[in-house]
Amino acid sequence: MIEVDRPAVKKRIRRGQDEWRDIIARFEQSGQTRDQFCTEHNLGLSTFSRWRHQLRRAEASTSPNNSEASFIELEPPAPASLSQAWDVEVELGAGMVLRLRRSAC
Predict the structure, then answer these.
(1) What are the backbone dihedrals phi and psi of residue 60, each rounded to the nearest 5 degrees, phi first?
(2) Which end of the chain is more exposed for a tag (fewer CB within 10 A), N or C?
(3) Is the pTM of this model over 0.70?
(4) What is the pLDDT of residues 61-105, one digit of tens each?
(5) CA pair distance 52, 36, nearest whole angstrom
């Protein structure tokens, strides 16, 4: 009978949502790439990426900013010469702000 060397089979580890939150927080603090972090911690890259995406999406949907989102009507400014400066700021959520400025000509 011929014996065949088989590669070691990785035992599948089931992790809960809280454990994945902790893992992803450690990754974000590590300064490593996803590949480096997953290799070092014996994590599947696709599983890590899927959990990271799911947790981000869940966090965004439960964010208090999303529940309070609304539209406001902006009145056009009074006619002015083209040399007038203007500023526009749009809060995008998650701490991001889009700022547009035009300095006076």
Answers:
(1) -65, -35
(2) N
(3) no
(4) 776 655 555 677 777 666 655 556 668 888 888 888 888 887 766
(5) 16
